[in-house]
Specification:
Layout: E1 2-6, E2 9-14, E3 17-20, H1 26-30, H2 35-45, E4 57-58, E5 65-70, H3 74-84, H4 90-98, E6 103-108, E7 113-114, E8 119-120, E9 129-130, E10 133-139, E11 145-153, E12 155-156, H5 157-162, H6 167-171, E13 177-185, E14 195-202, E15 205-213, H7 221-228, E16 238-241, E17 259-264, E18 268-274
Parallel strand pairs: 5-16, 7-13, 8-18
Antiparallel strand pairs: 1-2, 1-4, 1-13, 2-3, 5-6, 9-12, 10-11, 10-16, 11-13, 14-15, 14-17, 17-18
Length: about 280
């Protein structure tokens, strides 16, 4: 089952039918430690509502923070080392790839996050920007993974590569994060064979395409959550992007008007135009 946030409230989708959750806000639902079980019980007596139009769907976030993990795939390790080779900081990423402690960083607030159909942005002072398609964990206040969504961690590779200390500027700005289209609610981990697929279209032609399986994710999602919760609290839960294993070549940079399409079955497809 999936949760969708709209201007008319939160809907549950099950077997192609949509059910309005009444007075429940997304915040209230994501605070529930028993969210998968609660929604299963809700659907036993709920009656289908008007069919949900996907053009009405908003980013599935209210007052949660979005955090991200880096260097969780071997491909991302290589890309980050390539970015930083001229700055002499490439070995940082090699070391964190094999270290016990993961790289975790703050990514976005709700106001900086767009949903499916919204426009992501590239920094005006960056020359080398790329999307980073990522499986994103939906986590309760206590740290239980209650669902999954699709995330796009927009990144300015030239700014980050100039100096690792510039990571916040490369990663955190208005329109730098996309989530959606909804939340797959489940208490069961996705199988390792699950694929993340990326297509970037320019003038209706595929400029870049790639895919990666979750089996290539080096870090266990539960371990990433455990580290983020150390000396930290999230009263309404949080989102945690798990890193990317799809990196366009260094010759590619996003341009205004590009269309970014990220698909993870059974979550759906997150599609955004570059502003």
């Amino acid at each position: 089952m999936r949760l969708y946030r709209t201007g008319e409230g939160v809907f549950v989708e099950e077997d192609g039918q949509h059910y309005h959750t009444g007075g429940n806000s997304l915040d209230a639902l994501l605070c529930r430690e028993d969210l998968p079980e609660y929604l299963t019980g809700f659907l036993r007596t709920a009656k289908p509502d008007t069919h949900l139009a996907y053009g009405e769907v908003l980013a599935p976030i209210e007052h949660q923070e979005v955090w991200a993990a880096g260097v969780t795939y071997y491909r991302s390790r290589g890309a980050r080392m390539e970015e930083a080779k001229d700055a002499g900081g490439g070995d940082f990423y090699d070391r964190v790839y094999s270290a016990e402690r993961p790289e975790l960083f703050f990514k976005s607030t709700a106001s900086r996050t767009v949903g499916a159909g919204g426009k992501v942005q590239i920094r005006k002072d960056a020359k080398w920007s790329v999307p980073e398609p990522e499986l994103t964990l939906v986590v309760s206040p206590s740290g239980r993974i209650v669902g999954y969504t699709i995330g796009n961690d927009m990144s300015s590779r030239d700014i980050e590569g100039e100096n690792p200390l510039y990571l916040p500027q490369a990663k955190v700005y208005s329109g730098s994060c996309a989530l959606g289209p909804g939340i797959l609610v489940t208490g069961t981990p996705l199988p390792p064979s699950t694929e993340i697929k990326l297509e970037i279209l320019r003038k209706e032609q595929v400029e870049f395409a790639g895919k990666v399986a979750l089996s290539e994710l080096k870090r266990d999602p539960k371990t990433l959550v455990e580290y983020l919760l150390r000396n930290n609290s999230f009263p309404v839960g949080f989102f945690l992007m798990t890193g990317t294993g799809i990196v366009p070549p260094s010759s590619f940079a996003l341009a205004s008007g590009d269309l970014i399409r990220i698909t993870i079955e059974p979550i759906g497809t997150l599609e955004n135009e570059v502003a």
